[in-house]
């Protein structure tokens, strides 16, 4: 594993071992494997040295249940490098980090801004903030770690040249635009319909307005206040009705899977979905938005049927048809323009076809 460690150091210039807790979980083909440095030091070190994701917290620290929700991790080092590069950090910059986590990325940010720059990192979890503060201190890295809601930013250190976000975001806070009025805000951004699939978004800000094009796909743990809640029991609905929709079975599926869910979701704010069934049997697309529900049953050899809110079905079909009629454009052809109180999606160019959205 020496080669992998050398690769990580070459990419990032700093070993992440001092920032990891004694217990981490590494993802494998058969699920997450728990590694304890005190019990399996060699396996733990191999994981620390590898270019892999390591989960460091489950369910906001309430459990160690790998069937639960991972809520903190040491990100893939190669992805960390990619996102740092997208932030375009220069020596002497003032940087606000949203989500301290283990403290490793905060140290890398400080490495890039140098002695003449400063890094403020905001962490919502008090326990994680305290641990990261201690690790940074022990590593001799001068970062100001504060405990607070990162979606409010940190006004005491503003203005910032850069904002670097380490959690998935669906609604961009106005506070970040105010605190970084002329710079770059880099974040993983996703639609509700795309679930855990986000896109790197580097917003170039000028006079408090940010504009950026969607980049590569990434997967990040969502900001706590922007998580999608559990669906719970499906409510009793109307009778199922067979219909003729302007969508083939393959088109219904493509519009919520892979990058289709991201793009179609750009026109369906606050809409979430689940897809069940498979093989030669009937599939069902379940939709939910603002407390209303709908479903579409479909499949090769099956009549299409619908149930639930007609407006939600109409909006989904319209958004999917828009995407399909334009040749299924990929996310890289879209971007976001964000100002005080307004978010606008644009297609192909910031001054091209666009529409306002409320996330």
Automatic annotation (TrEMBL):
Family named by the database record: Belongs to the methyltransferase superfamily. L-isoaspartyl/D-aspartyl protein methyltransferase family.
Keywords in alphabetical order: Cytoplasm, Methyltransferase, S-adenosyl-L-methionine, Transferase
User: Where does the protein end up?
Assistant: Cytoplasm
**SUPFAM superfamilies from the xrefs?**
S-adenosyl-L-methionine-dependent methyltransferases
Gene3D superfamilies in UniProt: Vaccinia Virus protein VP39
The question of whether Transport is a record keyword is answered with no
Specify the species. Yinghuangia soli
Q: How is this protein named in the record?
A: Protein-L-isoaspartate O-methyltransferase
């Amino acid at each position: 594993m020496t080669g992998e460690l050398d690769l990580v150091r070459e990419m990032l210039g700093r070993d992440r071992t001092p920032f990891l807790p004694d217990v981490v979980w590494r993802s494998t083909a058969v699920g997450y494997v728990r590694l304890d440095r005190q019990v399996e030091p060699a396996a733990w070190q191999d994981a620390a040295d590898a270019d892999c994701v390591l989960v460091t917290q489950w369910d906001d620290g309430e459990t160690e249940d790998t069937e639960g929700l991972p809520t903190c991790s040491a990100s893939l080092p190669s992805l960390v490098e990619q996102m740092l590069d997208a932030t375009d950090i220069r020596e002497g910059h003032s940087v606000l980090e949203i989500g301290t986590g283990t403290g490793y990325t905060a140290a890398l940010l400080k490495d890039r801004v140098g002695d003449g720059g400063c890094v403020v990192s905001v962490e919502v979890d008090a326990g994680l903030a305290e641990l990261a503060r201690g690790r940074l201190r022990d590593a001799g890295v001068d970062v100001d770690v504060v405990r607070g809601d990162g979606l409010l930013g940190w006004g005491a250190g503003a203005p910032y040249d850069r904002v670097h976000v380490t959690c998935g975001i669906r609604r961009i806070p106005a506070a970040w635009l105010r605190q970084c009025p002329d710079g770059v805000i880099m974040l993983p951004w996703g639609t509700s319909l795309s679930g855990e699939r986000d896109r790197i978004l580097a917003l170039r800000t000028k006079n408090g307005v940010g504009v950026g094009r969607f980049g590569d796909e990434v997967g990040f743990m969502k900001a706590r206040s922007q998580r999608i809640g559990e669906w719970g029991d499906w409510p009793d609905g109307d009778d199922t009705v067979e219909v003729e929709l302007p969508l083939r079975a393959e088109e219904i599926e493509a519009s919520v899977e892979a990058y289709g869910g991201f793009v179609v979701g750009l026109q369906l704010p606050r809409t979430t979905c689940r897809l069940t069934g498979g093989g030669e049997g009937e599939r069902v697309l379940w939709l939910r938005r603002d407390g209303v529900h709908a479903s579409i049953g479909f499949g090769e050899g099956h009549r299409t049927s619908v149930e639930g809110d007609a407006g939600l079905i109409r909006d989904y079909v319209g958004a999917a048809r828009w995407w399909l009629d334009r040749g299924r454009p990929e996310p890289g052809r879209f971007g976001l323009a964000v100002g005080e109180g307004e978010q606008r999606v644009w297609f192909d160019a910031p001054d091209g076809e666009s529409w306002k959205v409320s996330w």
